[in-house]
Design a protein that fits this description.
nine-stranded mixed beta sheet; 39% helix; single chain; five-stranded parallel beta sheet; 18 strands
Length: 502
């Protein structure tokens, strides 16, 4: 593992008013930050990187992601989540990928993240039509090869479609109702065996840079028994547990209709499964009682503002969450629901969208809070000690940004310019676990040009399969739309969408 000395760099320091330290040196040894000081001597076994007074900061952490659709940017229009998913991931054999396809689409996301300064990702990876060992292996191998830090879970529903959604069973004709009443192809036993494969083969690979996580997708998409089994895996191996909860108004209605008026947060708590290991994804349609339960459990929330806007899901109650001390991380969610894999864009949206939710501007997110969510918040969510910080002993997941770029000219306020002005073009260098894995906008560990050419050809050849899969879902659209509109008419005691203009 290479050792490195960064000379003459300014460090991101959110404890300071201006957010930046005086020029200094930073030493990396054995993949970790070893020393920070002035005029440090270069060791005989160290590479020297001249900082020229530029900014060295923790790499950004993509706290929630679905790599399975990295190749689908711009493919769907803006649609509500439940209709979006109908077209995004139908469980059709025509969409079954080859291992090479899974590898390439995963690698595309790695390239984009590393070149823009994202050093770590939590991939809540779903598999169409179901997960298979060789596809899991292809995804994991891409993460190993790219050099990025990754946690990967198997996001797979385990109950029938009609069990996940309110109203739909009363709206569809009998033949479609029979089809939608069938359980998913993967049983709980199948999925637990696949988790055994993931954990035994891949957890801790690449010197611990690539690790496993667990996911139930969402509480209403699995049986309580499988939900509990995943929690036990999470506890046994100390793995993050990814759970989508209350992303949409319809999911709030689901609790009213199917859970005796309980929210999905309360339902999860009643099962005894809220814990500090849980990443609660989205948490938009939560009320005060939900937030109190989350705060008491020690769980964290993954905020995905770009995706939430793209799908019309609503605006997360950022200040109510922060005021309770609930940790927040930020995520892209997925390329098809953000149309980029760029954490700078996510930070910018997070820094602005919440100004629509509070009259008192003192409650609007501050740039430092957003930066914390994108760095230390992500490290906590990933359960990697020190990740997202510049503390001595922390993993050396670092990015070097040119302060000579137009983004920082002139340098008025570093945190605000990082959040509101930067887009990734100032990133000079990306380091993960002490290794420089991208430089001057190019990933270094792979043949970037060859990968992109192969991916372009392969995914163009798959365009007809994608179109055919979408066409196969068209006969369901009217029923899903009716379900969605019926749910939107229900009073759920809160509003998380901007009212229509008058």
């Amino acid at each position: 593992m290479p050792n490195t000395l960064f000379r003459n760099v300014c460090l991101l320091d959110l404890s300071r008013e201006d957010g930046v330290s005086a020029p200094c040196d930073l030493r990396v040894r054995d993949g970790r930050i070893a020393e920070i000081g002035a005029d440090l001597a270069v060791g005989s076994d160290e590479a020297l990187i001249e900082g020229h007074g530029d900014l060295l900061m923790p790499g950004l952490i993509n706290g929630h992601f679905h790599s399975s659709v990295n190749h689908m940017k711009g493919r769907l229009p803006g649609l509500p989540l439940e209709i979006f998913m109908l077209y995004e991931c139908p469980e059709l054999d025509i969409l079954r990928p080859t291992p090479r396809e899974a590898y390439l689409r995963t690698m595309l996301g790695c390239i984009e993240m590393l070149e823009n300064g994202t050093t770590a990702v939590q991939d809540d990876c779903f598999f169409v039509p179901e997960p298979e060992p060789d596809i899991i292996d292809a995804v994991m191998q891409a993460y190993v090869d790219s050099g990025i830090r990754a946690r990967v879970a198997l996001d797979q529903p385990e109950v029938a479609e009609l069990e996940k959604l309110p109203y739909l069973g009363d709206l569809v004709p009998p033949d479609l109702k029979a089809e939608l009443s069938k359980r998913s192809g993967s049983t709980a036993e199948d999925l637990l065996a696949l988790y055994d494969h993931l954990i035994s083969k891949w957890h801790g690979q690449a010197a611990g840079r690539v690790q496993a996580a667990v996911s139930c997708s969402a509480p209403q998409r699995v049986t309580p028994e499988y939900f509990r089994s995943l929690d036990e895996l999470s506890r046994k191996h100390d793995l993050p547990f990814y759970v989508h909860i209350l992303e949409t108004r319809l999911q709030r209605v689901f609790g009213n209709e199917r859970l005796g008026g309980r929210s999905l947060v309360r339902y999860t708590a009643d099962l005894g499964l809220l814990s500090e290991r849980m990443n609660i994804i989205h948490a938009i349609w939560v009320d005060d009682d939900d937030l109190d339960l989350i705060a008491a459990s020690g769980a964290q929330i993954a905020h995905n503002p770009n995706s939430n806007l793209r799908l019309g899901s609503g605006i997360m109650p950022f200040r109510a969450i922060r005021d309770r001390g609930i940790p927040i991380c930020l995520g892209v969610d997925e390329a098809i629901a953000d149309d980029a894999i760029n954490m700078w864009s996510v930070m910018k949206t997070a820094g602005m969208i919440h100004s629509l939710t509070a009259t008192d501007f003192a409650h609007w997110p501050q740039a430092k809070e957003v930066l914390e969510a994108a760095t230390t918040g992500g490290g906590r969510a990933m359960r990697v000690a020190g990740l997202g910080t510049l503390e001595t002993g922390a993993p050396a997941d670092l990015i070097l940004l040119s302060l000579d770029s137009l983004t920082f000219l002139p340098l008025n306020n570093l945190p605000r310019q990082l959040v509101h002005c930067e887009n990734g073009r100032s990133v000079r260098l990306t380091m993960v676990a002490g290794e420089v894995v991208a430089k001057d906008g190019h990933a270094l560990r792979i043949d970037r040009k060859a990968i992109m050419a192969e991916a372009r050809s392969l995914f163009q050849s798959r365009s007809k399969a994608l179109a055919d899969a979408s066409a196969a879902m068209d006969d369901r659209l009217a029923y899903y739309r009716q379900m969605y509109l019926q749910a939107m008419e229900q009073d759920v005691g809160m509003e998380r969408r901007v009212p229509a203009f008058r």
